[in-house]
Queue: 4 jobs
Job 1
Amino acid sequence: MRLIVFTLCATLLFACSAKTDAPVLNDSSQGVSYPTFEKPLVNLPYNPSNLAKFKQEKQPYLQAFFRDYWEANQVSAGLLVAKNGEIIFEKYLGQADKAANEDLMQDTPIHLASISKVLTAVAILRLVQAGKLKLEQPVYSLLPAFPYKEVTVRDLLTHRSGLQNYAYFKPHKKFWREGKMKTNYDVLEYLANGLSQTYSLPNKNFSYCNTNYALLALIIEKVTGERYPIAMQKMVFEPFGMNHTFVFDYKNPREVSKSYTFKGELWPESDLDAICGDKNIYSTPRDILQLDRAMYADNFLTPELKKLMKQGYSNERRGVKNYGLGIRMMQWDSGEKLLYHNGWWHGNYTTYVRGEQDTISIIALGNQRNRSVYSAFSLAGILGKYPVGLEKIKNTHSLNENPNDTINLQAE
């Protein structure tokens, strides 16, 4: 029965996907010019007069967390906590390069993993604001080789496209060869030649899928006429003052933190490592704070676009969690709301959390596989009235027992 339903859906909407000679986007994108994006003027929506008191009150809890969750669990990562756009706690543990005996520092670029999706979404929304793109625009109108006619840009942003994650593409001797370094163009070519499954009709279900953001990177290239790394530099990194942030280029590698297994061994290269948009942006906690501050700016995005970005689109099941335009969220009936995104690629575990009601930010970027990095999410319960974990730290400033007994991990 499941096979019949899938076949019917595919026949109704995706009939053209069986073509094997569908054209694909050339490796050199051709697009139109786009406006220069200047640095946002951030008018922070709060009075920082009580910042010193807040910092003093929270320090014992933050110190206890860092000691009992990170140091005790040998995390290799950077942690930054901010209130009112100002850093109130920042520490780094572990090494960026074990062979060279180099420590992680505040200016060490770390692979963001899926936090990269937030930045890709920001670039797309800035193009929408500039009138170069529409959220309801069909993807095929931008990428003619894309075979699924009813999938829109919004569907990609919200993970409601129904597409298969490229991580599960089956090897193909011509279009998806094992061992060959894959690119975003290979993802599009695989789809264009009808080799991928589809999990549902568009905008019917939420299904987290890296393919969506690999395609969004190609759309950015198509609209701007620039390669994705250059477009991101011009639209996001430079205007926001993210001076240690870039899209990694495997043909011209830069000095970055290495990625390690839990045992501290260097993580081997994967043939999916060159695909970007969904991942492959390197940054620092301080640079992500620059993004976080910019998201309060009136000239960053219009109020209407910011509202669209931060609302949930997947309401088939009632619950706390949802997904907006490139950002996850947790919203409780009591009114509290957290925006966040986690990441995981190889040994890089990352999390970025913002509570706009309390103007708090939590940024944790790790380079050695260790789920304790995600425990930083629960600091929101220390910084504001959010119902997330760490009850022992709230009550005692200390944890002498196994921290995993009370932790509320938010890894997804």
Note: The longest strand covers residues 337-345.
Job 2
Amino acid sequence: MFNKIANTVRGLAVDMIETANSGHPGLPLGCAEIGAVLFGDVLKYDSSVQDWPDRDRFVLSAGHGSAWLYSLLHLSGYKLSLEDLKKFRQFNSKTPGHPEYGETPGVEVTTGPLGQGFANAVGMALAEKMLAARFNTDDYEIVDHHTYTLLGDGCMMEGITSEAASLAGHLGLGKLIAIYDDNGICLAGETKATFTESVADRFRAYNWKVIDHINGHSIEEFKAAIIKAKETEDKPTLIIAKTHIGYGAPTKHDSCSCHGAPLGEEEVKGLKRNLGLPLEDKFYVSSEVKEFFENRKKQLTKKREEWENKFTQWAQKYPELKEQWDKALNLVIPQDLELDSLKIKSPTATRVASSIILNKLADKIPYLIGGSADLSPSTKAYLDNYGEVQKDSFKGRNLRFGVREHAMGAIVNGIAAHKGLRPYCSTFFVFSDYMRPAIRMAALMGLPVIYIFTHDSIMVGEDGPTHQPVEQLESLRIIPNLKVIRPADEEETKLAWKEVLKRTKGPTALVLSRQDLPHLEKCRGIKEFPRGGYIISHKEKEAPQVVLMASGSEVSIAVKVNLILKVSGITSRVVSIPDREEFLRQEKKYIEEVLGPKDALRVVIEANTGQGWYQLLNDSYYTVFMKSFGKSAPAQQLAD
């Protein structure tokens, strides 16, 4: 039966790709047996209840093989019809070119950039361990599932895979099973031209169990490998499955020509002839295969119902844990965070203010967890009272990612996509560049990840231009669905954290200072903070001649300039704009009210390259931006 399922997947996948005249047939043909075993025998899921909390997670890290995944999801009973398969890669279809979170039932994360999905899977496996430590009791194991990921040669070459695999091995994530589609072919040719290391030895060095020399086309060998992997509890497992890309294609078998282009009509006919599939009947699924998956669905539904009965008993016996569970899965925020009454001395760096706030929030929000890329003493993003996550100890709430920024970003994406925890991660702002692809994926998926970026300007000082962010602020502001907030003092930092917690449909970046900043007297407008920008200076007796705009540490400079202008008899206004993109989304009337008369001189002060600010300027303007990289010197000297 599993061979019939495999050939059905091959037929569906090539029909999808030929109909679209676009796609990647190599992986679907080469990994069909792997898919048949996973979805037909191994994975624990219920396609009728997609968000079952204790389902196994499967991540297709090699996202270009999406036709393989969509075929299997269709057969497994997810709400993905043959009509949906026929619309593969078409506008607004449920079957986009690469798997997209929220677009296709059964897809756990968006994948495509190679290696991201593997690191997401590490995050999901870590989330499972942490939730099990929190909610399982001696008599009830309500969190008990595996995370599987399929990756190819491209994923295996990417640096993010090495970073994430190293951390997964260190933590001993025994319920993580990675399957390596080792076919020796990449887009441009054979992998021996660029990739000759021993992957098995590399992963053993990472403290993984490695099961190699597996024939990826043998149902029996692959099943046996999965059984061995599931028996291993103290470390993750890598199954190295030798496969043939384009398996069954008469002339493109084992060729890079089938990696990323349709096979063509004659090649498809030859393939179907080789596989014993009907030549003219496109999108063919036999009655036997349909019946098999109908029975499988009944078995899986029974498993899910058994879990629900167990969960009900657990909830009745442990109502306090049940209450925490519900709040965590729904990211419920307590009504009173007690931030307004929180005393923070001034002047203080916004990174320090954020640390005080974060620790206060940790007491109120048990599902808030996170860590940094080996920088917690500097970024202050550490929960002082809540221990660390280490191997065999997953009750802590502080994650030590090591100097692995890219993996850190993708791992917290996996944690957020898993659900049940609200993750943050932290590093110096300049090193946000090292994790930019993961930030982009969080924004694309709409995941509620929190970024705490500190040391946000040339005021880093002596470390010099390698550590002084100049272009990073603008580069993050242009990412769609990423909220970027740069608070000016400890009070704005409190308000920024409130905005962070309210936002559950996308990531938010807090951009914070290294240096101390004074408390700013906000004479009006503070209630408008959520609108991204507001007036903080006294109400003018007459229309302002100058409007001073700034964010973060430069707002205090704008306040000083305002006082100088006042002494000189020039009427001016100070506008704090902690979230410029949010401010630009406000109605025109509000923006005009804040920015004042059109004939006023508009001045922007920001330690950043500043390109996006011109949307708020008029014919009469002056800008104080960074026009070059910084220098290694004491911070005050650089400021002067």
Note: The chain has a mean pLDDT of 97.
Job 3
Amino acid sequence: MQKLSPRISSVFNCMLFPKCQKSTKSSDIFDRNAKRRQRESSAQKDDFAVYQYVKEEFGYRMADRVWDIKRLFTHAIELSSGSGFVTQNLTREIVENVVLCDTSHTNLDRIKCPEEIYCSKILIDDEHLPFRNECSDLVLSNLSLHWVNKLPELFSEVIRCLRNDGVFLGAIFGGQTLYELRCSLQIAESERLGGFSPHISPFVEPTDIGSLLNRAGFNLITIDVEEMTINYPSIFELMFDLQGMAESSVAWNRRLHLNRDCLIAAASIYRELYADKSGNIPATFQVINFIGWKPDLSQPKPAKRGSANFSFKDIENLNLKEQ
């Protein structure tokens, strides 16, 4: 049997498949305590910054979306801020005060805010927001919501914290994220074990996010989807980087272990199905970007049904008149 290098062996033993535990709440999908430990462990690595390329990129893109909103936000909240992936790209011209929230002490210590922005840091869990009602006019969340057990409750909490006409800007991994890795593992297990178990945590779809925002009471909802494809030498480097990102699975139903033969087979299948001419394998990160506004009387409203003075049925006649 093919031997694994010490580095790859450590990935196999410690990263994707930690020991299963019984959920304390039957409705919970994820072990939030395990995720908190992962984030703290990742933040303590000397080469922490090396693995943050996905969050860094989409943090920059989210900041760009904030700049597109032509107003000055007096008070903003960045949830699961990491090392301040969004805030580090803002200035006082757009935001005056920011509260950065994370579950990791070390992540908060790493944050270097722009000098002109007043920043405060709070150690909290995203699922339990301690803020008073209508305290902020901007809430940001960059690639962390996919680990929240109850998104409807969180969205309701966010709209509670927002002032009227406040903005909720978020980015969350979508259903096509890491589909190459998921398919390769499933094929390898099916061929060798006669069935497969989930190794990639479940993700939401764009329609889910729209429905949840609408149900929470947000107005003027906008959603778009982006994909980032990153090439790796092999499945093992991909898995090692996922560990460095603190993106290892913490689903309560995660497997105790992955058969070593299946892992080696999955690496071969991944390369056979997806590798490019140079032998590198792609990994897709699908990101759902969304924006929702807390209702306010100043916001534009749709015209009442039947109030239009022109019918779509008359469009052809309009063209004839113009001729």
Note: The chain has a mean pLDDT of 86.
Job 4
Amino acid sequence: MTEGSDCNLFGVGIEPSIVPSFELTDLDADHRLLELPGDSLLVFSAEGCASCRWARAQLPGMGLPVQRLCWVDAGRNGGLVERYEVFHLPALFLVRNGAFHGRLDAPLRAGPLAQALRAAARRIPEELP
């Protein structure tokens, strides 16, 4: 399949990644988030969620003002889902220099997400949940 083929009319899954992505679990999320410098977009997703699959394909190429994407499989990491109070997927949070800046409530589009990230960065940071 190529970018222009009829099999991939929407370009899903072939965008180049602008930022690195990490997979986090109940076992390593706290340690890794605390030690990572800069802004991490923490994304909770699940295999059976169509919006999550779209987010996984598109977020890496959106050019968001973050240093990395940190993915959590909500179906396999119930401890994190409970602590972050995830009720819908995908769920996005900003972690900056190991501090929690809260949930992002924005459409999955580059402009609104960038605006939500800037607003979250201005919040008073808290400890990770």
Note: The CA atoms of residues 20 and 113 lie 17 Å apart.
